Amino acid sequence: LIDRVSAYRGRDTQVEHHKTICTACSVGCGMDVLTRDNQIMRIEGDWEAAVNDGVICKFGRFLPLDEKRTRINTPMVRENGALKPATWEKAIQTLAEKLGKGSAAAIASTRLSVEALHLFKQLFADSDMATSLEEGLETSAAAVAAEELGQPFEGKLEDILHADLLLILGADLVEAHQVAGFFVKRSLPTGVKLVVVEQGGSALKDLADVMLTPASADAAVPALAAALSGSEVALVAAAAGAKLNLEDLRKAGSLIKAARRAVILLGKEVTTPAAVKALVELAKAGKAVILSLKGSGNSLAASQLHLDRPFKLNGHQSVFVALGDDEPTQRLIQRLEKAPFLAVQAAYASQLTAKADVVLPVTMWAEESGHFLNLEGRLQEAVVSLTPAEGLHSNVDAFKALARQLGRKVNDQWETALKERVAPAVMA
Ligand code: SF4
To answer: Residue whose CA is closest, atom 4 of ligand 1?
Structure first.
C-alpha cells in the first residue's frame, strides 16, 4: 500500500533516504524522509527508531507533503510603508539598531532546534520578555513541580505498552501526540483498563472503561485522591466538588487501586504544579508512572531554558519573533498589532510577516539539522533532508549574524544550559 500523494513519484532506487525525526510534536518520532531532485517524495516511519517503532501520524507523514504556504526567499525591510527586498547585511543592521534602542520582547517557536533556542536565549538574556510561542502552557505545571520536588518524576513512552491501567488526564490523544494515542489503542486488546478524564469529551471516550468529565482537570486530581483514600465521606464530597458522577468516580478509584503498572498521561489541561505534585504522590503510593505530553518538538528544551513564561507586551519598543517554520496563531497576530517595531524570522509568508518591519528568511525543518529533546527527555538529532535555496540562513546562522551585529558574545554550550534546571523527565 502507498499513499496517493506519493504514488508514482520515484522508485526506491531513484530516491534518497534521510533518517531524521519529526519536530511537529514532543513525541519526536523517528522517520525516513524520501527525497528526489531535492523534493520530498514520501515520509515513512523509521522502524529502527527507539521512540515510535516505525509508527507515525498524519502530522508527520502527510502534512509536510501538502505544504501550501509560500516560502520567503529574501530578507525584507519596510521602507516608506512597504516591505522591500534587502540584503542580509541591511536587514540585520536595521534589526540590530532597533533592538539596541529601548526594551525588546522576543518570542521563539518550540519547533526550533536546541542549538537555535539556546542562541535565542542568549541574545535576549537581558530582555524582561523572552519566551516561547507555547508560553509554558504545555510544560510549566510539570516543570515547576519538578523544580519544587528537586528531581525528575516522569517515565517513558514505552511504559504505556506495559501498563495494566492507563489514566489519561486532560489530554486528547486523538487530536495531538497521536502516536502516544496509537500506543494506548495498541495496548487495549491486552486487557489494559482505560480511564479518561477530560473536559472536551475525548475521542477515546468510547474505548474507555470509565470516562470522567470534571469541571477542570486540576479539580479531578483531588477527586481521584479521594477515590483512592477508602473514605466514603471524602469520595462523596470530592465527586460533588469536581462535578463528577459518584459511581463513575468510585469505579475509576477501584480500577486504579487494582492496577499494578498504571501509567498516568498528563495533558495541558493540568495547569497547576500543585495538581502535578499531588499526582506524583498518588503515583508513588500506587507504583504508577507519570508522563506529561508537552507541546511541539522542543517544548521541553524551551522549558529547560526558561522560555516558558506568558508573553506580555509592556511598553516594549521592539518585538522579535523567531517563528522558524511554525505558523503564527491569530491570537499572537492580534497581540502584536500594536508593536512599534516588529521583526520576524520565518520560513513561510504569513499575516505576521506581512505586518513586520524586518523579515529574515530561514530554512524549514527538512533543510536544517539540530537537536531536539522529546517529551520523555530523549535527546535526538534531526538531519538535513533537503538543500535550502540560496540566500536562506539556518535559524542558528541567523541568530549568530544578529549576535555579531550586536557585538554580543554567544556560546554553543547548549547541553550544559539544558541541565541547569531540574527537568520533569530524566534527560538522556
Ligand atoms: S506523533 Fe508527533 S512526532 Fe510523531 S509523527 Fe505525529 S506529530 Fe510527528
So the answer is: 29
Note the pLDDT tens digit of each residue in 66-83. 999 999 999 999 999 999
Per-residue pLDDT tens over the stretch 18-63: 999 999 999 999 999 999 999 999 999 999 999 999 999 999 999 9
Q: Provide the 10 A C-beta neighbour count for residue 330.
A: 8
pTM for this predicted structure = 0.95
Cell of 359: 523579515
Measured at the alpha carbon of residue 259, what is the angle toward residues 254 and 265, in degrees to the nearest 5? 100
CB under 8 A, 24+ apart: contacts of 64-68: 64/40, 64/365, 64/366, 65/5, 65/6, 65/40, 66/5
Ligand 1 atom showing the smallest separation from residue 28 Cα: 3
CA of 341 to the centre of ligand 1 (A): 35
The b/e string for 81-94 (b: 16+ C-beta within 10 A; e otherwise) is eebeebebeebbbb
For residue 333, the SS3 value is helix
Residue 19 φ then ψ, to 5°: -80, 115
Rounded CA gap, 333 and 339, in Å?
Answer: 10
